[in-house]
Specification:
It holds the Pfam family FERM_N. With about 150 residues, this protein is mostly helical. Helices cover about 45% and strands about 5% of the residues. The chain contains seven helices and two strands, in the order αββαααααα. A two-stranded antiparallel sheet has the order 1-2. Helix 4 (about 85-100) crosses helix 6 (about 125-135).
Length: about 150
């Protein structure tokens, strides 16, 4: 807590293997739940008065909580609030298609079966084709054993 904001930011970037740091920053919520940018030149303890401990998603015990968290993340990805690379959109899109349509069945689905499903803010034909390639490889043992949220976690 005596370290400056840039030290924390550098650690986060190192952990994420993020080299182009100029496009990013760290935000936190204060005691009034207001969003603030972490000032890299100031000590952490002077900026963050009471650091609350938020649970890691893997530590959540309720299925419904994990489910709603996954729905929120999916909405953030689709709306563009949570930017993703092409590869990440492809992978998450394939999980979305699997959770909504189940296993790939060419007789049932046809050739343009995912055009109505939204999984990226600027969805292109190229992205849809890559998603279909991945989706064709997925097989669920039983649709009742897996919820849509479990495919995103």
């Amino acid at each position: 807590k005596r370290g400056k904001g840039h030290v924390l930011f550098d650690k986060v970037c190192e952990h994420l293997n993020l080299l182009e740091k100029d496009y990013f920053g760290i935000t936190y919520r204060d005691v009034e739940n207001q969003k603030n940018w972490l000032d890299p030149s100031k000590e952490l303890k002077k900026q963050i008065r009471s650091m609350s401990k938020n649970p890691h998603p893997s530590q959540l015990s309720e299925d419904i909580t994990r489910y709603y968290l996954c729905l929120q993340l999916r909405d953030d990805v689709v709306s563009g609030r949570l930017p993703c690379s092409f590869a990440t959109h492809t992978l998450l899109g394939s999980y979305t298609v699997q959770s909504e349509l189940g296993d790939y069945d060419p007789e049932e689905l046809g050739s343009d079966y995912i055009s109505e499903i939204r999984f990226a803010p600027n969805q292109t034909k190229e992205l849809e084709e890559k998603v279909m390639e991945l989706h064709k490889n997925y097989k669920l043992v039983s649709a009742s054993l897996c919820s849509p949220a479990e495919l995103w976690t």
